[in-house]
Amino acid sequence: MGGGSSQLKCPNDYEKEKFQKILKLYDRLDSNGDHVVQTEELNKIADLHVRNKIRKFKENIDNIQSETEIKNKNLEQLTSYKIAELNTQLINQQTRNLAQKDDLISFTNSEIDKLQSMTPEKKSEKFMAAVTTDNGHIDFWKFFEYMKDRTQDIDNIVW
Questions:
Q1: Who's near 1: CB < 8 A, 6+ residues apart?
Q2: What confidence score (pLDDT) does residue 28 get?
């Protein structure tokens, strides 16, 4: 056995049994005690070193695959949640939109009913309110603004 390992002491923060194993391996590799690893010794430790590296890389691949699986499951759950949330929002918007449409149609039908049930006097009052000033006189510019998009109606007025 190599003589160099007898002088080495185990560090305080390391397990003594593991340290002893390392010393024995070192002594076997340095069988002639010159603290230089020979080619044959180097080949043995190099082979072990490479096998350990390969094992670590394979463990790394397993970890990558496992982490990716977990991330993808989380993303699938998040996607499902977001889709459900978006569906709920859209359904709520559609429901509000339909309710708003119903309210507007109901209001508009109510206004139509009011206009259709007006007496000739009330119709005249309504028209005069649209084209007169506050003192009740017909104002040309108010009349113009009222009629400018209704010129097709002028021909329908019986004189």
A1: 27, 28, 31, 33
A2: 75
